[in-house]
Amino acid sequence: MIGIIANPSSGKDMGASCIITLGGDGTNRAVAKSCGDIPLIPISTGTNNVFPMMLEGTIAGMAAVVAEKDYKKKYLKVNRCKKLNIYKNNELVDIALIDAVVTNDLFVGARALYDPNSLRELLVTVAKPTCLGMSAIAGSVNPIDEDEPYGLYVEMGQSGQLKTWVPMAPGMMSSIKLSSYRRINLGEKVKIKSLEGMVALDGEREVSFSKNDKIEIELSPLGPNVIDIHETLKAASEDGFFIEEGQGLYKYFNKIGGINHESIKGRFN
Questions:
Q1: C or N terminus of the chain, fewer CB within 10 Å?
Q2: Where are the domains of the chain?
């Protein structure tokens, strides 16, 4: 079963082979909370996204069919993503897939996150200078890819000595002052220094805290599984997964370095 579903936890009960998500980082974060080990095909529908892919729908559908029909998992290639675990007073209260940023805002409906004056601390699983927003802040000083076994912790504020220019939103460059930054390892917990404020997770304000609270953020390797579209379709195609007729002829021509495409008929059921 292939699921495009509103309640990702129901995917496990229905025996879904994969879940196709349409949305941004926040949408995928919501799905990741309850999808378990079911692999995702995250398709981006916005601009300020890091986790989902800009992917043509037909190609996503082909990968989903492989996930559904590849019973022995011979072709399906899956990558396990990193995530951030958010602890409040030693209790796990939420997660983030890409970034957790601490602001000095005290209310959920406060001003936009791309206001540099409100940003205090930032942790990311991925630091990309080619994206917009929080990941780009980290990416402007220390790029980190999805498959690298660490993240980045950044301290910000008007007293910072390092100033970097960052694309915070479409058509909007901002000057961000940094006090320090360093890599964090998988399994490492960072204690937040700010005394009060709000922790925004993948662009959404979620966790408020005061002077009596302790906030810690952990970089975990146990994020959601994501289907590697290129490697999955490559493996399936090399073994004739999409061929409907002429399997023997296909394998013969493939061995000698060519294939008579008029002799076989493709399949996509």
A1: C
A2: 2-80+224-236, 83-220, 239-269
Separation CA 159–CA 178 (nearest Å): 8
* Cα–Cα distance measured from residue 57 to residue 43, given in angstroms and rounded to the nearest whole number: 8
pLDDT in tens, 209-224: 999 999 999 999 999 9
Output the pTM of the full model.
0.84
Query: Interior CA angle at 206 toward 173 and 101, to 5°?
Result: 40
DSSP letters spanning 42-56: EEE-SSS-SSSB---
pLDDT at residue number 268 = 43
Residue 243 DSSP label: B
User: Looking at this protein, which amino acid is placed at residue 70?
Assistant: D
Q: What CATH homologous superfamily does 83-220 map to?
A: Probable inorganic polyphosphate/atp-NAD kinase; domain 2 (2.60.200.30)
The whole-number pLDDT of residue 47 equals: 75
